[in-house]
Here is the input.
Amino acid sequence: MSASSHVFDATEATFETDVIQASLTTPVLVDFWAAWCGPCKTLGPILEKVVDSYNGALKLAKVDTEAQMQLAAVFGIRSLPTVVLVKDGQMIDGFMGALPEAAIREFLQRHIVANAAIAENDTPPQTEAANAETPEQAIARLQQAIAAAPDKSELKLDLALAYMRAGLVDAAQTELEALPANLAEDAKARHLRNQLEFASALKDAPDIATLRTRLAQNPDDHAARDLLGVRLLIEGDAAAGLEEFLHILQTRRDWNEGQAKKRLIAAFSILDDDDLVGTYRRRMASLLF
Here is the structure.
């Protein structure tokens, strides 16, 4: 392993502290590798070089999947090498295979350099206007802007978000699917995608009272508890919704291919309450690691 202070080995015992908690202040790339994996040997030095070039603004955690099988299983690693980026306590993106250095830098710039550039400025353009206008007004404004500048794809992403705020789920989905590849993994696009997944889960779902009745009759009805969590989350009681997902994670982590963990990660990405997200992110990590 590199002698760099920015590169370290991660184990199941240290993952929560060295990766999850550490990522609250510094993003962490996690490299899942194995000694027998040829592409891993190619990718490893490239990752170390790239991480070192960030001068402490990025760290690299190396996970030997042969020694840390449980950790690899938690992340559902099925192909090596697999690299995931953990930021603010959650996995936000990843890739498989030995990418060239230029592709890795491009991957990281979407999440670190671009975000840092925004942080150096004041409120991004149109934020104050967007907060003051209704979703319907935002839709009208963005439609006019797109008509005047049809090549500005970022406006189409903003339109998709406005549709979602107005409750026009199908229109938001259509705009999201039409986005070019360079915006499909934008942070705002991922945020919208998670919102749409929650909205889709509630299609034809029972109301809260019915779901609570089902759970009273059978506390192990995980499908009902999952839908209850989604309903509570979407209808404004985020903490109660997160509690339902945590209950499933604690009692049956592997239910529906680890859906409770996926729900929590998606919920963290759409909630604006940093304290609430931090509390439940730590509770999730304590159950997983």
User: Anything to note?
Assistant: The beta strands are 7-9, 28-33, 59-64, 82-87, 90-96.
